[in-house]
Amino acid sequence: MQNPLIVDLGTGFLKYGYPKQSTPKIMPSSLPSHGAHKGDSYLVNLDATRIGKFYPMENGNLPDSEVLKPLILDVFDRMAIGGFQRVATELQLLVFSTVDQNRIYDVCDELRELLGCRKLLAAYQQVLTLLFLGKHTGTVVDIGHTVSMITPIYQGFLLREHVVDTVTGSLYVTAALRRLFEEKAQTSSSYSDYAKIATDTKAIEYIKQNYCQVRPNPKDKKVPREWQYRRKDLNVSLGDVPWKAPEVLFDPTLIGIGDVGLIDAVVDSIEQTDMTIRRELSNDIVLTGGGSLFLGLRERFEYELKRRLPHLPVNVYALEDALTNAWSGAAALHRPPENR
Questions:
Q1: Radius of gyration for the chain, computed over Cα atoms and rounded to the nearest angstrom
Q2: What burial class does residue 214 get, using C-beta atoms within 10 Å of its C-beta: 0-12 exposed, 13-18 middle, 19+ buried?
Q3: What is the DSSP letter of 46?
Q4: How far apart are the first and last CA of the chain?
Q5: Within a 10 A sphere around the Cβ of 291, how many other Cβ atoms?
Q6: What is the pLDDT of residues 140-166, one digit of tens each?
Q7: Is 314 within a domain?
Q8: pLDDT of residue 111
């Protein structure tokens, strides 16, 4: 494909652009919701940008072509791709690893007809992530907004039967933060201040992005820093909340969710594979996705996995461009070698 439009359907954000660009444009997915969130009350309306929105990849599966059509047309509008240009456009979508290949072919054929573009291909995000790193074998841990995928890849081939998914995504850290501040509001003399934070979506998101860190060693319960959250109407101590909230990634039951944590999911995935390739899969474990950006996460993964897989070599890598590396991997494949 020559200079295709590359679209990465994520669980939190959609990334799009041309290979010649160094980074993609990013926007939240923007289809009208087909129904309100259900389940744990702490997960309802946690992210203001998601109210009235529908994220195509929220459940880790590729939706119908009719559902995708308005979203891709929105991308065309943002890229100023008109009618005649659309006919000549080559489109490449990145999709999650659990999507059956036959289903991908069907959706791509239908979507190409609906959009009126010349060619449409799909690629697996996790394989592109490894290729971007110059690797062909390893385990990709894609920590998304609402779902995380653990994908073993051997010599460039995705081992579909050993993919493990869990609904443990970064949204649960948001949920844990809200619950922890609600608990503080009930037990602290600064009741009104903590109650304000617990009901303020922007404050919760700011604290998650700027303060939350993962304990490299879960046995270390000390609070290394005494953070203060300050704004015009508030000045409160965060205590150990920024350290406690990310623990939900390893134990979702902390907020009443019955799915497996990330470490259990990785161990399950690797131990399901043939014994002859497990060493290679554990030797290159790559953390990616927006939920992998917490400081200390890589160190915690190595600590936990070395404890759980003592018979295997464990090396964990965290990507600085974790939000966009799959898109960048696809873009790099379409650039001239001298420009990669």
A1: 21
A2: buried
A3: -
A4: 16
A5: 29
A6: 999 987 788 999 999 989 998 999 988
A7: yes
A8: 93
Query: For 54-58, 292-296, 325-329, which range has the lowest pLDDT when averaged over its residues?
Result: 54-58
pLDDT at 322: 83
Tell me the CA distances in angstroms from 51 to 34, 55, 61, 93, 201, one per residue in order. Answer: 12, 11, 21, 25, 11
Closest listed residue to residue 261, CA positions, set 290, 297, 311: 297
What CA–CA distance (Å, rounded) separates 125 from 190?
A: 45
Half-sphere exposure at residue 36, Cβ-oriented, CA atoms within 13 angstroms = 8
Cα 203 to the center of its chain, rounded Å? 21
- For 77, the enclosing helix (H) or strand (E) is helix 65-78
Strands 157-158 and 138-143, sheet pairing? unpaired
Judge whether 94 and 127 are in contact, CB under 8 Å. no
Q: In the block, which residue shows the tokens 């579909």?
A: 160
Query: In whole angstroms, how far apart are CA 280 and each of 142, 253, 312, 313?
Result: 18, 31, 9, 8
pLDDT at 298: 96
What was the pLDDT predicted at 45? 42
- The reply to whether 133 falls in a domain is no
Which residue range forms the structural domain that includes residue 66?
5-128+323-339
Structure tokens given for 3: 């200079």
Closest to 140 in 3D by CA, of 295, 270, 276 = 270
Domain count, the chain: 3
Distance, in Å, from the CA atom of 144 to the CA atom of 289, rounded to the nearest integer, reads: 5
- Return d(Cα 280, Cα 282) in angstroms, integer: 6
Residues 6+ apart with CB under 8 A from 137: 130, 153, 154, 155, 156, 277, 280, 281, 284
Residues 117 and 176 in one domain: no
Amino acid at site 287: L
Model confidence over 28-45: pLDDT tens digits?
654 444 333 333 333 444
